[in-house]
Design a protein that fits this description.
Layout: H1 12-19, H2 25-33, E1 38-39, E2 42-43, E3 56-57, H3 65-72, E4 82-85, E5 89-94, H4 110-117, E6 125-126, E7 135-141, H5 144-155, E8 160-168, E9 177-179, E10 182-186, E11 192-196, E12 208-221, E13 231-241, H6 248-255, H7 269-276, E14 285-293, E15 300-304, H8 309-317
Parallel strand pairs: 7-14
Antiparallel strand pairs: 1-2, 1-3, 4-5, 5-7, 6-7, 8-13, 8-14, 9-12, 10-11, 12-13, 14-15
Amino acid sequence: MSVDAESAGQRLDNFLIRQLKGVPKTHIYRIIRSGEVRVNRGRAQADTRVAAGDVVRLPPLRTSERAAEKLETPAPAREFPVLYEDEHLVAIDKPAGVAVHGGSGVSFGVIEQMRQARPDAKFLELVHRLDRDTSGILLLAKKRSSLTRLQDQFRDRETGKTYLALVTGVWPANKKVIDVPLHKYLQADGERRVKVVARDDPDGMRSVTLVKVAQVSHGLPLAVGRDERGDCDLTLLEVTIKTGRTHQIRVHLASQGHPIAGDDKYGDFELNKALQKHGLKRMFLHAWRLQFNHPATGERIELLAPLPPELKKFSDHAVLAPPPV
């Protein structure tokens, strides 16, 4: 099949999902991962951007009536808290536990729910992504021109993306830059993971994270069974990413010996269980601030999303205090 002008700029996975009605999303992601989908005769990834005139080759596909019926079941309509909106874009405050789009075992996400909630919207696309377990600012474009201009800013690192992350231990105040390559890989069960690699590793992608200590909590009493006192120090960080790699913040912080509290992939699992008893039921990572140039006016915009209630409640419980000057 060929890519038309209206589909230009879309991610390959989104393009195929829209074109292959009746084919389960899990199957679409499977044939992409296996290399059976080719764009202009070359292997492509799910996040490959297609261009007008591209030729997409697919393996033989069968669509069962049952699968088609399942796919045609619409996502439930849902609006999310709006931080900013005009005719060009909408910025929402995404809650934790909600994927940004369907696929990889998830039937639907933010984008499908908002399209159902806004049936008259002629165009609505994700500008960037957040992990399912990360809360905070998420941008959606309401025009094709806005989408491409905003994505260009993300790709060219013209945006400012700052997260709030609560990590275990006392972060060294002089540790301000993490410049360590990352490599994304799949586990035997197909789950994606990321690890730090050496600078000369051919599979490593340069990844840069800036860290600033915001608050520190000393000696939160925890019964973790491995420390005589069971006390736990925590540090709240303002984390700005200069590159947007998968799980970048989570892996970079964990690689420094200070994993994010509540992180079920790269964290301290024993400590996470203890923190749950104190009310932390999720990963403490929140997309707090986003700066970008408006796609139509060029005006510099700064958006802030306050900590969600469950994280604010835990931070108050942990008695986080400003770092010493």
